Amino acid sequence: MIQRELWDEVGGFDEAFPVCEDYDLWLRISQAESVGLAGGGPLVRKYGGHGDQLSAAIPAMDRFRILALLKLLANGGLTAAQESQVRDGIATKATIVAAGAGKRDEEIRFRLYAEMAKQLASGKRGDPQEWIKKVEEEIESSDSASPA
């Protein structure tokens, strides 16, 4: 549970995200406030592999996590350590998306995320707004190309 004031402060769910909106929300919350972990073992069990889960309907969901991380980076206000962690997270997720795209012969997706991972791994900072635009275009073009 979170306080209504915090929800309002961070802007609630970003309705532009068809998936991973909770991931985006918690990134913004953790930037605004300290977030601790409850001790004493797992509080949630993760079950997967059933046909009605979103990952079966929406391919490469890490693209939306990358988008959330890029938006966090673009908004600024991160400490140097936070920025480094965000960039590392983007690079890791971009590598995963590129590998999956390569296995599926999705050339446009592969090139975009492989280049992103390569650039971040080399220490190039780049403009997050440019990457946001490219990721949004890739998501839009692949979603419009997918059968409904």
One letter per element, helices H and strands E, the order comes to HHHHHHH
Mean pLDDT level:
88
Structural class: mainly alpha
Radius of gyration: 16 Å
CA-CA gap between termini: 35 Å
Strand portion: under 5%
Q: Which residues sit in consecutive blocks of at least 5 with pLDDT less than 50? A: none
Based on CA inertia axes, which overall geometry fits?
A: globular
Task: Tally the beta strands.
Answer: 0
Sheet with most strands = none
* DSSP summary: helix tally: 7
User: Helicity level, as a percent range?
Assistant: 55-70%
Structure report:
With 148 residues, the protein is an all-alpha fold. It has a domain at 59-145. Helices cover 64% and strands 0% of the residues. It is built from 7 helices and no strands. The protein has helices at 4-10, 21-32, 54-57, 62-75, 80-103, 107-121, 128-145. The model has no long low-confidence stretch (mean pLDDT 88).
Tell me the layout of helices and strands.
Blueprint: H1 4-10, H2 21-32, H3 54-57, H4 62-75, H5 80-103, H6 107-121, H7 128-145
Quick summary:
The chain has helices spanning 4-10, 21-32, 54-57, 62-75, 80-103, 107-121, 128-145.
Write out key terms for the chains shown.
148 residues, mainly alpha, globular
